[in-house]
Every structure is written in C-alpha cells, then in structure tokens.
Amino acid sequence: MVARAREFFGLERNVTAASGAVFLLGFGEELWKKFLPKYLEALGASIPVIGLFGTAEDFLDAIYQYPGGWIADRFGRRRAFLFFLGLACVGYLIYFFSSSWPLIFLGLVFAMAWQSMASPAMFAVIGDALPPEKRAMGFSVQSILKRVPIVIAPVAGGVLIASLGITSGIRVGLIATLVIAAFTALLIRFINITHEVHQSVNIFGVWHSLHNGLKRLLISDIFIRVCEGMADVLVIIYVTNVLHMSVARFGTLLAILFLTTILIYVPAAKAADRVGRRPFIVATFCAFALYPLAIISAHDFTGLVIAFIIGGLREIGEPARKAMIVDFAKPQLRARSVGLYYLLRSLAITPAAAIGGLMWKVSPQTPFILAGAFGIIGTLLFAATVRESAE
C-alpha cells in the first residue's frame, strides 16, 4: 500500500526530502511573515516605508532566481539548499535582534534566500529525480506542501501575537523558525542527486540554450502574470469597499479559493502526466483571464463564491506548466534555466500592480477589465505558439 502510494504521488526519496524541507521552513516562516508590516510599524516605520518593503521583497524575489539556479548547478542541489537555509537563518536572526526598521530591510536581503534562491533548486530536484511522466505529480505534491502552511501557520502566529504583543510574538515565532530550520537541515541531508558537471556558461549562454518552446511559454506567462499582478492586490479593496462585504466574508472566500486549489492539484497533475501538459496549461491560463472578470461580474456573495472558485482553478495547470519548464530545460543547465525564466518573468511584471492602482482612479472595474484582456492575450499566445514536442 505504501509503495503504491509513493509510486502514485511520485514520492521519490530526493523529491520527498526537498518537498518536506519546503513544508517545514514554510510553516516556520508563515508564523510571522504576514505580520511583518505590523512589526515594521512597531519599530517606527511609516506607511510609505512599509510599501517600500513590499517592493523590495518583490525585487529581491526577481533578482535572486538566477543566482539560486547558478549555485544549484555549480555546487549541487543539497549544498545549495543548505547554503540558502543558512543565509535565511542569518536573516531571521537580524529580524530577531532588530531595534529599528532599517535593520528589517537588511534582514530581508538574507531571509529571501530560501523563498527565492531555493526555487530553481526545487525545480531541478524534481527534474533530476523523476521521469517526464511523473513530474507534474511531483510539482503538485510540492505545491500542496508549500500551501498548507499558508493556511495553518498564520492562525497559530496570530494567536501568538495576540497573547504576547506584536514585537514579542514575532520574536517567539522567529525562535520557533530557527528550531524548525535545524530539522530542515537534517531533512536536506537526505537529498543525494548526482547531477551533470557544471558548465561554464554565462547568463547570455543560458538564454541562447533555452528551447524555443520555453521562450514562447515565457512570453505568454508574462501576459498571464501581468493579468494576475494588476488585479490581485486590489481584490480585497473591491470586495470590501465596492461590494461592501465584510473582511470575515473575504476570509471565507479565500478559504474557498485555497480549498479549490488543493482539491484539484492531484487529479489534474495525474491527468497531465497521462495526456500531456498543454490542455491543462490552457485551462489554467483561461482561469487567470476569467478570475478578474468574474470578480467585477459578481453582485452578491454567491457570485463571489463562483469567482473565487474560478480563482482556485488558476492552479489546475500549474504543475503541468512547471513540468513543461523542466522538460524543455537542458539537464546540465536545468536550475539556471529555471532561474533565468523566473528572473525575466518577475522583472517584466513588476509594474503591473502600480498600473492597476492607477487604473483604479479611472474606475474600480478598469484594472480588472484590463487584467482580463492581458489574460486573454496570454492564453491565445500560448495556444497558438507552444507545443510540447521538440522543435
């Protein structure tokens, strides 16, 4: 029974260890991560400074992707994970000992190492350890384990902060994260992948090595993520200010979205591994395009429930998309290829949220309509230009 379950879910030893590490440290970080803006405020930061912190987080997430991939290809997956974990722990310690808000920015430089630098290494582990027909399921399991802490840990962190206060609560959460990091390091030790010898190729060489299909996927994915970035940050404002729903009801809608996502991961990934990636990526891109349009089409709570179910369906093809990226990447450049993909995508979509905010001034519906248009363009581009077979 256990062997059959491992086979079904693609739970190869290296994938299990890496996914477990993502789960453990993710749980630790989510104890306090959502409350960092209040921590900054408690340390004297103004609202513009808190906004700048969010921008800094997005920027670091973009520029760390490629170096993370380079390190994973150069020194191996296990060493890379341990190095990223060590950097993140330095960041947690800086957060803990910070007496003023500028130090939080310094801590962010280190703390983001796990979230961003480790991502290409995770892709590479799944690509190295699993055959193509198992990769979508591998990404599905990893995505579920990454999202479960987002649902559970902030509740525990909120209780901690409510009882101890914002500063003491976050610092206790940081201590817990450092303890969890020690167990994460032990789990990483089980990763043992023999990867091909590192090739001395610069970033331009990696770009030229990318499969044409991967470049086309990147272009369509940029349109889709502009769609996401332009509207997502405004959804809570639209639901509460325009449709006059309570924050509690918005929380319920988010729970519906996450539940939908978790429920579809495994069956969608299994089907994608059997029939191919492309139909599921088209489906997920369609859901991205429809979500903002469904939000502004809703006039009551029932309509919003439908919209948020569509929002959850945005993940139906995410394991398939990630598997396609790995399929197209050359094995000896796998982590760097993933890192370059996400570097370019993240940099390209950075202005999307700011543009959405400006469009709100035209009317609250405008950024959602514009987002839907970008989503439709991205879907059509993918359907017209990307094939799974080598070209």
Describe, in plain words, how this protein is organized in 3D.
- The longest helix is centred in the middle third of the chain and has 33 residues, at 132-164.
- Helix 11 (212-242) packs across helix 16 (334-349).
- The chain is an all-alpha fold.
- It has 18 helices and no strands.
Q: TL;DR of this structure?
A:
This protein is 82% helix and 0% strand.
The secondary-structure class comes to mainly alpha
Mean pLDDT: 86
Percentage of residues in helical conformation: over 70%
Count of alpha and pi helical runs: 18
- What is the CA-based Rg, rounded? 21 Å
C-alpha termini separation: 41 Å
Order of helices and strands: HHHHHHHHHHHHHHHHHH
Low-confidence stretches: none
Main beta-sheet annotation: none
Percentage of residues in strands: under 5%
Shape label: globular
Number of strands: 0
Features of the shown structure:
single chain, globular, mainly alpha, 391 residues
How is this fold's topology laid out?
Elements: H1 2-9, H2 13-30, H3 36-42, H4 47-63, H5 65-75, H6 77-97, H7 101-129, H8 132-164, H9 166-188, H10 203-209, H11 212-242, H12 247-275, H13 278-297, H14 301-312, H15 318-328, H16 334-349, H17 352-360, H18 366-385
